[in-house]
Amino acid sequence: MMVAMDGTLSFVKGHGTGNDFVVLPDPDGSLALTPGLVAALCDRRFGVGGDGVLRVVRTAAHPEVAHLAGEAEWFMDYWNSDGSLAAMCGNGTRVYARYLVEAGLADGPTVAVLTRAGVVVAEVGDDVAVAMPVPVVGGPAKADVGGVTFDGVAATCGNPNLVCPVPDLASLDLAAVADLDPAAFPESANVEFVTNEAPVDGADLHVAMRVIERGSGETLSCGSGACAVAAVALTGALGTQPREAGVVAIDVPGGRVTVTLTPDRCVLTGPAVLVASGEINLSRLRLS
User: Is the pTM for the entire model greater than 0.85?
Assistant: First the structure.
């Protein structure tokens, strides 16, 4: 991606079940992203608006991962909306893969994408399915949100997560930042709040979820969080019969995703949509 002589920058806007991203095509790694620029782009009032930025860059062109160019052609350089880096974003990966295919940068339907959590493989069709890191369920932990303490179960899926069963999602006030024990979560974590829901066809379990993402606040969906929720749900921690494997339907405020989980495979499936493209006038952004 080149910045034009008039100071404009091309972008695409996409989302996966409402988890939205500013996609920056930068195949040759010519743009030097900064936390301030990312935060300005993601500002919902003074920028484009998004939960994060997906820079589309060839692995060989990014100094952080150039030595891994043989593993995947494309690197998803993902930044949270506050300008911090993240290792993995399940919905972001699905949007990224959709962009690669629609932009003609990958043939599809199978697309390998390098992330900071390793290589993941997406299948691009009407929906986009991505093989995520297999979640690892940990022990109990707590989160404090706005003075309310929630008990949960830790789980990692590229990113650290804390899955908290609650009786009711609608009554939660998730405007505050989640306060976590730094000994348990030295790099903080996404915090998911989960309820059991009535059975639906095609799924072994059906749950609903809201999430506070580290570096972004409450979002309409979180792919790695959904995978963590599925793994915790299958252990029986939400009061259901424990299962070694299964399909979990997960309703998020932005729609529904499904997670298919076995002991050695985790697949996140759902819509990934590109909704707009345009140019950003960099001189008019509010840079901090």
Answer: yes
Classified by CATH at the fold level, domain 8-127+272-284 comes out as Diaminopimelate Epimerase; Chain A, domain 1 (3.10.310)
The reply to whether 244 sits in an annotated binding site is no
Q: Where are the domains of the chain?
A: 8-127+272-284, 136-263
Q: Is 223 annotated as a binding residue?
A: yes
Report the pLDDT value the prediction gives residue 32, as an integer from 0 to 100.
87
Q: Is 161 annotated as a binding residue?
A: no
Identify which of 183, 212, 182 has the alpha carbon closest to the alpha carbon of residue 80: 212
User: What is d(CA 112, CA 230) in angstroms, rounded to the nearest whole number?
Assistant: 23
221 assigned to a ligand binding site: no
Q: Is 164 a catalytic residue?
A: no
Q: How is 16-47 classified by DSSP, letter by letter?
A: ETTEEEEEEE-TT------HHHHHHHH-TTTS
Place of tokens 């804390």: 162
Q: Give the C-alpha separation, 47 to 15, whole Å.
A: 16
Judged against a pLDDT cut of 90, whether residue 7 lies above it is answered with no
The CATH label, of 3.30.1330.60, 3.50.50.60, 3.10.310.10, 3.30.70.20, for the domain at 136-263 is 3.10.310.10
Determine whether the annotation assigns residue 196 to a binding site. no
Set 42, 89, 157, 266: catalytic member: 89
pLDDT at 288 > cutoff 80:
no
List 42, 157, 164, 222, catalytic entry: 222
Two domains, one topology: 8-127+272-284 and 136-263: yes
Quote the percentage of the chain above a pLDDT of 90.
94
